[in-house]
């Protein structure tokens, strides 16, 4: 029984760069499985590449402004 627990901990540690790359790719709007498998070939380099790539997720690119804020002037003219 201790071998199973120790084996699962070691397997989790060995797969951590791949899982991190996959979840980072998913968060930035890229394919999880592609970056998961790429990370087996180049684990640390793939993480560095993902950090510096531009975010493809349109929801994460900007915040929605409040209705009273004018995009051009900063604040609405009625204030």
UniProtKB/TrEMBL annotation:
The chain crosses the membrane at residues 32-53. This is Uncharacterized protein. The lineage of its organism: Bacteria, Pseudomonadati, Bacteroidota, Sphingobacteriia, Sphingobacteriales. Keywords: Membrane, Transmembrane, Transmembrane helix. It comes from Pedobacter jeongneungensis.
